[in-house]
Amino acid sequence: MKTNAARILESLKISYELRKYEVDEADLSAEAVAAKLGLPPQQVFKTLVARGDKTGVLLACVPGAAELDLKALAAVSGNKRVELVPLKEVQPLTGYIRGGVSPLGTKKKYPVFLDESARQWERVSLSAGVRGCLIILAPHDLARAVQATFCAIARW
């Protein structure tokens, strides 16, 4: 199965791996996915959709084991305040459903902020744009594909 995210990476000549896993509707957390794939939860990134009071919608990629630091995200994105968008807005904004949001291939191009902890890994994983499938790739390749800003936005 090829996702839009995979097609985008191919068009940019970026090497990646797709990994499928069994979806558990009761637990869509990045930690649960990491356990199924035998990866540390710090290596499995979740993509959160937020809205800044000045810049509008933005995406934040943080390790599954961490929380998003909204104040830090506001500071690096040029906003006074940032809040997560309500769940009902995630799909209309991104084209993706909860548990399947990828920073690659969203309906519109949004600024992407990638927690700097990604740099400590040779490869990180994140949603391929559908539940049950992850993309694994080098963090600098992900950053190049989505023009991400590396920054400290995870709270442990």
From TrEMBL:
The YbaK/aminoacyl-tRNA synthetase-associated domain, residue ranges: 29-144
Name assigned to this protein: Cys-tRNA(Pro)/Cys-tRNA(Cys) deacylase
EC number(s) on file: 4.2.-.-
Keyword flag Cytoplasm: no
Species per Swiss-Prot/TrEMBL record: Thermosinus carboxydivorans Nor1
Taxonomic classification: Bacteria, Bacillati, Bacillota, Negativicutes, Selenomonadales
MF term (GO), any: aminoacyl-tRNA deacylase activity
Single GO BP term: translation
UniProt record similarity statement: Belongs to the prolyl-tRNA editing family. YbaK/EbsC subfamily.
Coiled coil spans: none
Keyword annotations of the record: Lyase, Protein biosynthesis
Superkingdom, natural source: Bacteria
Pfam entry (one): tRNA_edit
